[in-house]
Amino acid sequence: NLEVRFPIRKKKLFSSEVSYLRAVDDVSFDIRRGETVGLVGESGSGKTTVGRAILRAIDPTAGDVIFHTREHDIYLDELEGEELRRFRKKMGMVFSEGPHSIANMASDILRSFRPRMSLVFQDPYSSLNPRMTVRDIIAEPLVASGMMKNRDKIDQRVRDIASRCKLNLEHLRRFPHAFSGGQRQRICIARALVTRPDFVVCDESVSALDVSIQAEIVNLLKDLQEEMGVAFLFIAHDLSVVAQMSHRVAVMYVGKFVEYAPTESLFYKPRHPYTHALLSAIPTIDPDESFDPIRLEGEIPNPLAAPSGCRFHTRCPYATEQCASEIPTWQEIAPEHFVACHRVDEFDFSRDKQSADTT
Ligand code: SF4
After folding, report:
1. Which of 257, 274, 310, 347 for mutating ligand 1's site (highest number of atoms within 8 Å of CB)?
2. What is the position in ligand 1's atom list of the atom closest to the CA of 274?
3. Would you say the ipTM is above 0.85?
4. Choice between 233 and 149, residue whose per-residue pLDDT is larger
5. What are the start-end ranges of the E strands in the chain?
6. Global pTM?
7. Separation of 244 CA from ligand 1 center, angstroms?
8. What are the structural domains of the chain?
9. Residue 192 to residues 138, 149, 156, 188, 291, Cα–Cα distance (Å)
């Protein structure tokens, strides 16, 4: 039941008014060891906020973020004040005060959740400090958190992860500007994995790259997952990239999850009209593989004025009066397949069904 609200202050002539933007509203899901969960949705749907709230880079307003370990469960959302400061110290967390660049933010987060949680940002250009060598960038989470102190051991660990990420070891003394976007993203991945974390948030980590480079990075992440057993939350707006990478996929719309299912079920048997609309927008070569197109009218609503009832009702071609007034329940309609839609029992958008109907 994760919830994140941001206060928005509107200035009036003699006063100010605060309203709240519900960026994430009552979202529940789990990620298993060694699994990739894909998170898709249009810009402004709340995907990035979910990732950052899990890492405690943003404070959740309500709900629990639970990190299960062999010994005990850590309720990341419940740590406050002195307790949070102690936990951060124990985990080697240091957050900079005040506004800071993406490169500093990347450093903060990577130090903070060592050795268990980490993050790969979208932009491999702004998330690397231009004044540090590749070796120092990759070694930073080990050094800043105090996880390793011996220089030889640090070098050994850096060389190991750099070669796993298929970086040329001769290049470790160079600075980031000497590298292409794909190579820079490999450096970011090496930095995120150098502490051998259990869980990494990849926030649009391939979106800024050319298609051929995207495929290389996706394959690299899959190889690293197999070798190291790391779990990923893979945030992206491109469903076809998510399909290649994920075991399960969640679809978000204006701060809420609308569907969550194993990848094959979601891609072949979607049950929510919004998921169907997203899938029907992906071009395919084989006509049997395509969905009947749905054209969505209008824009994604402003989260500050989110629609009542089902948030998708203003654009859904199947909306009824009930949809405008009642929030649909989040229900499991098949093993591990969750949907929030009042009319889910009436829909069958599966590809087989559509091909049969067409025939
Ligand atoms: Fe469409 Fe209604 Fe289902 Fe929402 S609840 S997706 S508006 S049919």
Report:
1. 310
2. 6
3. yes
4. 233
5. 2-11, 16-27, 36-40, 66-68, 73-75, 117-120, 199-203, 231-236, 248-253, 256-262, 330-334, 337-340
6. 0.85
7. 28
8. 31-246 (3.40.50.300), 260-358 (no CATH)
9. 8, 18, 16, 6, 38
